TrEMBL record:
<dbReference type="InterPro" id="IPR036374">
    <property type="entry name" value="OxRdtase_Mopterin-bd_sf"/>
</dbReference>
<dbReference type="InterPro" id="IPR000572">
    <property type="entry name" value="OxRdtase_Mopterin-bd_dom"/>
</dbReference>
<protein>
    <submittedName>
        <fullName>DMSO/TMAO reductase YedYZ molybdopterin-dependent catalytic subunit</fullName>
    </submittedName>
</protein>
<feature type="transmembrane region" description="Helical">
    <location>
        <begin position="52"/>
        <end position="79"/>
    </location>
</feature>
<feature type="compositionally biased region" description="Basic and acidic residues">
    <location>
        <begin position="1"/>
        <end position="10"/>
    </location>
</feature>
<feature type="transmembrane region" description="Helical">
    <location>
        <begin position="117"/>
        <end position="137"/>
    </location>
</feature>
<feature type="transmembrane region" description="Helical">
    <location>
        <begin position="190"/>
        <end position="210"/>
    </location>
</feature>
<keyword id="KW-0812">Transmembrane</keyword>
<feature type="region of interest" description="Disordered">
    <location>
        <begin position="1"/>
        <end position="42"/>
    </location>
</feature>
<feature type="region of interest" description="Disordered">
    <location>
        <begin position="220"/>
        <end position="246"/>
    </location>
</feature>
<dbReference type="Pfam" id="PF00174">
    <property type="entry name" value="Oxidored_molyb"/>
</dbReference>
<keyword id="KW-1133">Transmembrane helix</keyword>
<keyword id="KW-0472">Membrane</keyword>
<feature type="transmembrane region" description="Helical">
    <location>
        <begin position="158"/>
        <end position="178"/>
    </location>
</feature>
<feature type="domain" description="Oxidoreductase molybdopterin-binding">
    <location>
        <begin position="319"/>
        <end position="450"/>
    </location>
</feature>
Length: 455
């Protein structure tokens, strides 16, 4: 810039042409041709790209993401976010939470199933997602970037689809691998990100479903995967912009490409699923850092949060520990020995956490929550209960349980597990255990049970 455009213009100077309108600028940009690099169609040379391979991967993701999203919604409902503010990790969700319902206590392994399937399937789908992005990457660099207002909307939806998918999968996997990476913020990040992604995904399915079906039929699903690399001829583009105009010779068949994706998914499945299956399979859960080597003995099963990490010391759970039971305008304070003197019950229940890991059934012993409610005169059908912990740091220091949960005869304030006193890391001297309840709501180091109380 030499500043000449700012100089005064003489009276005889030719008038400036009016600026071109936006559509004209777009047409001029299109006529100028794409710059060198990925915006040029000939930059992409793989002979495997095309509507058929993209459609196969898209069909797998269509089924997988529907299951993934559904199990995610169910697992979020398990937190009963409508009960109290401490349960609601996504405030202001509005219509997005309109589907929520009271989470049941039967079957007792329900949360273990929904969250285990959600996490395991999410990890196993990563190779399929990456392969799908590879198959359509030329579209991301299409030139010109915007051809019209309608094209701009389509590009925006594509940005939300790709960006939303990467965001949801990345935050989910990081939460599995790195505990407390998103302290207090993982739930809203993952929840709202999932809704943005699924909205873009639904729009994409509506726009591309017919094309996917035509592409799958065009080459014959049984025959195409058996075609060797030498026979992997370039397929017609069909206006998709996926087929390379000048492809290199094929070095792998489409069968080989799909086989690589399948083996990658199976490998991730093999090193993840054991955290939910339990038993000897747990040793295979290499991608579950809190799902391996839990120790031995009656308390030798998985721990999500240790007493030290929660800021719980010996003074909090020692001889001075007291349990306060409130409700109906009454209050009772009990020592551990007094709690142990109450009628005891047992229940065989698992623990399942948001990271996807779970235990097999453990035998818990303690006092039924409804029996503790009876101490303050609340009878056989107590209201929900607000549970407080001695925990000093970290999320989930308290939780609200529904009336259905407190009234279930398997819902306990447990003092023992597998015949032994609870260890400090498992919530000594007393913790809540409720069937089908997320692990973080089975509050440890319980100090207060407030029946009918609110956060």
């Amino acid at each position: 810039m030499d500043g000449s455009e700012d100089r005064p213009r003489g009276p005889d100077a030719a008038p400036r042409p009016p600026p071109r309108p936006f559509p004209a600028r777009l047409r001029g940009l299109a006529r100028s041709g794409p710059p060198h690099g990925p915006s040029r169609p000939e930059f992409w040379r793989s002979p495997l790209r095309g509507p058929w391979l993209t459609s196969v991967l898209g069909a797998v993701l269509l089924v997988g993401i529907i299951v993934l999203f559904t199990t995610g919604l169910l697992s979020y409902a398990a937190y009963n976010p409508g009960l109290a503010a401490v349960n609601d990790r996504t405030p202001g969700k509005g219509i997005l939470g309109g589907y929520l319902f009271d989470w049941p206590t039967d079957p007792p392994w329900l949360y273990r199933l929904t969250q285990g399937l959600h996490v395991t399937l999410g990890v196993a789908l990563v190779p399929v997602l990456l392969a799908k992005l590879w198959s359509v990457v030329p579209k991301l660099f299409a030139w010109p970037p915007v051809r019209s207002s309608a094209h701009a909307i389509e590009r925006l939806s594509l940005l939300l689809l790709v960006g939303g998918g990467l965001f949801v999968f990345t935050t989910g996997i990081l939460n599995i691998q790195l505990e407390y990476l998103f302290p207090g913020s993982f739930y809203p990040l993952h929840f709202y990100g999932a809704w943005v992604f699924i909205a873009a995904f639904a729009a994409h399915v509506v726009l591309r479903f017919a094309t996917m079906v035509r592409s799958l039929r065009s080459r014959g699903a049984p025959a195409e995967p058996r075609t060797p690399a030498a026979g992997a001829a370039t397929e017609p583009d069909g206006g998709t912009g996926l087929v390379a105009p000048a492809p290199d010779p094929a070095t792998v068949s489409r069968r080989g490409a799909l086989g690589t994706v399948l083996l990658s998914s199976l490998a991730l499945l093999a090193v993840t699923a054991g955290q939910s299956l339990g038993g000897p399979w747990r040793e295979t859960a290499l991608l579950a850092p809190r799902g391996r080597n839990p120790g031995t003995g009656p308390n030798g099963f998985q721990i999500n949060k240790t007493a030290a990490a929660a800021g719980v010391g010996a003074a909090d759970i020692g001889a001075r520990w007291r349990l306060t039971v409130r409700g109906g305008g009454r209050e009772v304070v009990l020592t551990r020995s007094e709690v142990a003197a109450l009628p005891q019950a047992t229940a065989a229940l698992p623990i399942a956490c948001v990271e996807g890991w779970s235990t097999g059934d453990q035998e818990w012993s303690g006092v039924r929550l409804r029996d503790l409610a009876a101490l303050v005169g609340l009878g056989e059908r107590p209201p929900g209960v607000f549970v407080e912990s001695a925990q000093r740091s970290g999320a989930f220091r308290a939780a609200a349980l529904s009336a259905a949960q407190t009234g279930d005869p398997r819902s306990l304030l447990a003092l023992k597990v597998n015949g032994a006193d609870l260890s400090a890391d498992h919530g000594s001297p007393a913790r809540v255990i409720v069937p089908a309840n997320p692990g973080v709501h089975n509050t440890k180091w319980v100090t207060v049970l407030d029946f009918g109380g609110a956060a």
